[in-house]
Amino acid sequence: MARSGVRYEDVQRAIDALLAKGEAPSVHKVREVLGTGSFTTISEHLREWRTQREENRDQPPPRGMPPALQELAEGLWEKAQAAANEALAHYRQEADGRVETAREEALEASRRAEDAEQRESALSAHLASTEQRLAEQSGELARREAERDALAEREAKLRRAQARLEQQLADLQQAQERKAQEHQQALAEQASHHQERLTQEEKRHESSESRLMALLDEARQERQAADKAHAQRHQQLEARLEKTERLVQEARSALAEEEKRHRETDWARRQAEERTRTQQHEQALLQGRIDEQKQLLAEQARRLRELETQLHRCLWQAPVDAHREGYERADETEDEKGPANAEPSGEE
Q1: CA distance 165 to 159
Q2: How far, in Å, CA of 28 to CA of 342, rounded?
Q3: % the chain with pLDDT above 70
Q4: Tens digits of residue pLDDT in 280-301
């Protein structure tokens, strides 16, 4: 419904003024003449004026004028109406063709937009999956790095333990050599002492052979006991040395195993870094493709808006141009035949 701001009579007066100037009425021109009013209200009044004009077009001209003038006016009116109808049919046909073309282009643009949206959705899903895999591999890489750090710390501890064991082994070997020297020295001193005693006893008791033999037996027993104790201590030191060497060998095996695991972990880390760089490159390529698809969608949306604007312009301008051309042809016909029709009127 039209608002009460601009009335139909105001729009009709503005249309008459435009027709008097030889201009075809339109919403913008009527509003320029009125200086106020909304485009919706003016468009509704203009549509009503055109409807009434189409309804009154087939009505015969008023009676009371000379028959020749009336016949001439009817002929001019029929010719103007035929020309207007022909021009209107031509413009309608052309407008229909443009509308059909615009619809086909709009359908094609919609189809391309849907295809682009589907591709964008697929690319987005692939990108999300890639980002998820990248996050998982980043977590795996962080875990491997933590394991590598733990292995490095454990390797350092094993090396420190190996150094301590080697130092203990060296200390044990030095202690064993020192004790062996002390034992040899003690045996030499003991033998020297017994020899001195034996010499003294021989000097004192040369006649007491039995006493001498007893002393010799005692010296032999003491020496055998000392040799036996030295052998036992030597066996104990050898057992401790073998145990220490076994511990060192185990530590070296564990160190070799840790070094092997460290090399495997480092190789896995380099592989993960290479895959991460590859996935980052793929992600950059996917982002470039998504940007291209977005630009294509924006271009298609812009062209669709242009097509809608052209369609709207064709729909509004076709009837106006047809009526305007009809008026111009009618004016030209009246200008050409005006003087010839004036003479019969003078004679009557």
Answers
A1: 10
A2: 39
A3: 82
A4: 888 788 788 878 888 888 888 8
Quick one: DSSP state of residue 21? T
**Residues making up the chain, counted from first to last:** 348
The residue to which tokens 């006016």 are assigned: 73
Tell which residue, 323, 319, 312, has the closest CA to residue 99: 312
Take residue 142 and report the two structure tokens written for it.
Answer: 């962080």
Write out the two tokens for 240.
């401790």
Contacts of 330 (CB under 8 A, 6+ apart): 76, 80
Quote the mean pLDDT of the chain: 78
Are the CB atoms for 154 and 258 separated by under 8 Å?
yes
Q: Tokens representing 203?
A: 């000097």
The answer to whether residues 31 and 39 touch, using CB atoms and an 8 Å cutoff, is yes
Find where tokens 């937009």 sit: 113
DSSP annotation of 6: S
Q: At what angle do helices 39-57 and 8-20 cross, to 10 degrees?
A: 70
Q: Is the pLDDT of residue 84 over 50?
A: yes
Instruction: Please report the pLDDT score of residue 42 as a whole number.
Output: 92
- Cα gap 64→178, rounded to integer Å: 159
